[in-house]
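Structure, all four chains, one model.
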Amino acid sequence: MGLTKSEIFTEKQNEISGIAKVFGHPARVAILQYLFKIDSCICGDLVEEIGLAQPTISQHLKELKNVGLIKGSIEGTSICYCIDKENWSSMKAIISEFLNQDLNTNNCC
Amino acid sequence: MGLTKSEIFTEKQNEISGIAKVFGHPARVAILQYLFKIDSCICGDLVEEIGLAQPTISQHLKELKNVGLIKGSIEGTSICYCIDKENWSSMKAIISEFLNQDLNTNNCC
DNA sequence: TTATTATATTGCAATATTACGATTAATAAT
DNA sequence: ATTATTAATCGTAATATTGCAATATAATAA
């Protein structure tokens, strides 16, 4: 089918997997790393930086924007993207909680 | 195409996205949460617990096993799965480093 | 107005993922 | 031996994702 049965899972489970899915492509990881590295808004040069065609980058940016991890503002003829740090923090809290599940468990095998 | 261009990204970027991709489905999130919750090997009942067909669960388990997050041992007619806590820890370190990128940055916008 | 520049959208082809019925393989129980 | 149980694999259908060429849009510049 190819259609995830979201309705049988909890909201939390869908939230966690939804965030993780966005991180599940190296181009989006690379874009986020670059935005953190330059630590400012970036207008343009992402296409050269990443090495994919402009429409492809645009699509990945859209997904990052949809999930709220980045935001863009119009700056003359170009658009400036940067990390939405507030959303990044809350996202980080959700994922961290999931990752730290192991801290409350014993070793069974 | 539908084919990710892994070769243009760093090994780290591919590693991060590879792990995240596994978390990118609610069934796999649910399986991991359940394994942590019962905090022991589990033989069977995952199919009833999650609510997907047996072959589907089996496929998700395979992906979790491929990336090393769980391990299974044969126990008579059934197979016992549990979290591979050592691998979980190293995976967590990789993802945490990525998530904590924001700690070294200023607020630009 | 007409370029120019930067980004988004559309349309499409190729590949990947999700899901499940049917089958298989392996052991356990009778 | 036969039958039941459990989980993997195979085959297949449906949907999603990735990537890019072509085109559209939007804002400035000439």
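DSSP finds five helices and three strands in chain A.
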